[in-house]
Amino acid sequence: MEILTFDQLPKAVSELLEKVSKIEDILSQDHPKEVNADSLFSIKQASAFLNLSISTIYGKVCRREIPVSKQGKKLYFDKTELLDWIRAGRKSTLAEIANTVKLIPTRRSQRR
Question: Residue 44: CA atoms inside 13 Å, Cβ hemisphere, count?
């Protein structure tokens, strides 16, 4: 690593800014724009998104366990609804359960 003198700092800073700008340009080109949160998935896309087989998804649709829209014979899955469905199945940790229990007043504390 080269030691810079005070006189070399302005040039070094400008070179650094140019490099950062180039890195930002490269990163913005490599990453596609974020998919619209309201996008619809086909059953194949939903299968890949959820990492479930297509037959498993058909079973969940039949049992009305998964949010789905149907037009004719086609099934459509809303990405936001799928994310909400996944989050709804979240199991609470023991610490969260303990905190919830501490917040519930007991009958003894209500009598006082």
Answer: 0
